[in-house]
Amino acid sequence: MNRNPARKVKRDVDGILILDKPSGISSNRALQIAKRLFNARKAGHTGSLDPLATGMLPLCFGHATKVSGLLLNSDKAYEVRLRWGARRDTADAEGEIVETSPLDSISEAALQRVLPGFLGDSEQVPPMYSALKHEGERLYKLAREGREVTRPPRPIHLFALTLSDYDPCTPKLFVHCSKGTYIRSLVEDIAAALGTLAYVTELRRVWVEPFTTLPMVTIEALEMLAANDPGDSVALDQFLTPSDSALQHLAAVTFDGAGLSRLLQGQTAVVDAAVAVPAEVRMYAEDGVFIGLGQASATPDGVLEVAPKRLFISL
């Protein structure tokens, strides 16, 4: 007698889940939980959040995984609470204290005075506790082995850096930054400008472009709905936003049946639209179905022609 129940057949799920990641788990763990709850065949995340961190973690399912790389380049916004007076090896509350400073409180005036100096373009040295690689090894792995290596600085841009909640020992800051910005390193740099040390105690990602106004859903909400689901997990799809929601900055072009047929065969198609070329475009069928990404160019006689780059529908 077979005591193993039949495994649920994975289903094709397409769309983007705007997850509110809880503290205490990795981004990959959050992804695996969501993938299981949706019973999805294919899923991926759009850049890691530290286990300590909470907040927006867009998860891409099915065809939407084709835009996950684009979202890695998005601007992001965070709320970070820090504590003055100590440095930890991980630069956050999960690490061991490796150095202390007698200056464990900062006046509001002093803090407000240094923040503008971090705005704009600058270079930042990534922390050892990061997922970047050095000679094929993750930096955090080397750090856990007690090794420290030279990390080349990387360009970043801060659009906004403001004090959102003043406390002399544990203030909270709002940060709007470019891709590749490490908030833990930023906190340490701010402390250095004030002649002290600091580490992150709370970190929340408020939004990831272009999802600045979309609501987030928690794992608890997904689990509650899944528990009442008859077994196919379809009810969870109400939390998905379409794949093309990540591509609204691109011009949209629509194709008739003949044009759609050519695109699906990997051929170029002519379209009657006003698009500055060359340009990447969103492609749609006449019924509004999102087809995928295309590359628009002009023929010698000025006709707009689109070549398929990445299809988001099954052939």
Total E-strand runs:
19
Helical content stands at 10-25%
Q: How much strand content do the residues show? A: 25-35%
CA-based shape: globular
Order of helices and strands: EHEEHEEEHEEEHEEHEEHEEHEEEE
CATH architecture of the largest domain: 2-Layer Sandwich
The radius of gyration over CA amounts to 23 Å
State the CATH topology of the largest domain: Pseudouridine synthase
Q: Would you mind describing this structure in some detail?
A:
This protein has 315 residues and is α+β, with helices and mostly antiparallel strands. The chain folds into 3 domains: 15-73 and 211-244, Pseudouridine synthase (2-Layer Sandwich), CATH 3.30.2350.10; 76-208, Pseudouridine synthase (2-Layer Sandwich), CATH 3.30.2350.10; 250-311, Roll (Archaeosine Trna-guanine Transglycosylase, Chain: A, domain 4), CATH 2.30.130.10. The chain has helices spanning 27-38, 68-71, 108-114, 139-144, 183-193, 219-227, 257-264, and strands at residues 15-21, 43-45, 54-61, 76-84, 86-88, 97-100, 120-124, 133-134, 137-138, 154-165, 172-177, 198-208, 217-218, 240-241, 251-255, 269-270, 279-285, 290-298, 304-311. Strands 1, 2, 3, 4, 7, 10, 11, 12, 13 and 14 form a 10-stranded mixed sheet that branches. It has a 5-stranded mixed sheet with strand order 15-17-18-19-16. It has a two-stranded antiparallel ribbon with strand order 5-6. Strand 10 and strand 11 (172-177) form a beta hairpin. Helix 1 runs parallel beside helix 6.
